[in-house]
Design brief:
422 residues, GMP Synthetase, Chain A, domain 3, Rossmann fold, 4 domains, five-stranded parallel β-sheet, three-stranded mixed β-sheet, 19 helices, 8 strands, elongated
Amino acid sequence: MQVAATKQMTNLDLIRGAIAAKIDNACFSAWIEPLDFDISENVLQLGAQNQFSADYVSSVYGNVLSSVASEHGLSLNIYVRGATVAPIANDNSVATYAPMRSATNACAFDAFVASEENAFVLSACKKISAGSVSFSPLFIYGPSGAGKTLLAGCIRDASAGRVVMMTGGGFVSEFTRSLRDHNIYAFKDYCRNCDTFILDDVNALAGKRATMDEFVQLVIDLRNAGKNVVLTSNTAPNNLTGFDRHAQSLFASGLTADVVAPNDNVKRVMLMRAGVSANVASALASRIASDGHMVAGVANKIKTYAELMNADVTVDVAERLLVDVLKKSKTPIAMVKSMCASMGVSYDAVCGTGRNRSLVLARQVMMVVLKGVTKLSLSEIGNYVGGRDHATVMYAIKQIEKQMASDLVLAAQINDMIAEYK
């Protein structure tokens, strides 16, 4: 009896060692080591602490565990400690998976307003939507509002065959739900049974080890099967945080293409396509942040105002409506008025003949800032602060520059203002 028990313990040690040799050390410590190992009636029994752990081990490491068990003449059973010992269902003919419904908007490549800098990424998107390519996965990255989601939607709608598109957050939720509902194998089949798989915002997987492991294997399987994979992110693969080196190199193994934020001309075209008049679009384009979401919000606000008020939106009306989102105008007169507000002096006083100390200092600071951010001559600068002549402006600038050399606080304030209005 004692000999049999010793032999069983030896077998379990050998089995643990064989499993550890086939699994990453960190994964073995996190998922396999906590399991209860036992052998009963030629079955390797592995006891997990909860159902989630049992489901995850079964789905991710089931093949490895079954292989090691069979090498020792055993079958495999993974169960939850304290629950009735029963094999985990993994019969795809029984388990079914249906994704959560989500609203999708139809997209066409014509909807993406491309600048010269985005011609390459647009061509790559059109190429992959036309059929199988040699550069899968296509990894599209760029700042928020540059049009990554729009391009992903365009690929989805232009591609032939079956397309599966998910957000990064949606993939995390669906993977977790499939584990909970014991239909992980059906979820795997759903993701793999497609011609093109698109994941919008892969960043959402960062730090979620179990989900990331599943997704990396999904990308490998799809690529090996000749399927197209499209990923979007706010940063290049090598700069992804929360991802191991293997995932980063896999994502970069196809084609990486950056999409740049919309320039002024692109923003103008976007506004006009949304129904904003040409003169208003031209006046606002340079004063809206380079963010496609912001441009869409501006267009919606203008259109809604016009519909509710039954009136045309002029440039003046648009500036009043959008005072919270428009960048400050960078005309010299606008800069002077803005500096008056920030320094607590009136514009009329700055342009007047007052000579009290605080007013003179404010006026001289404005001259220095205008000199730092514009190409105006000294005489032109003087005109914007009450018609001062060339000599007065020169004297004022020299005085402030002297004070800046010894007054670090004043120097920092002026440098901040120059940076703000540049």
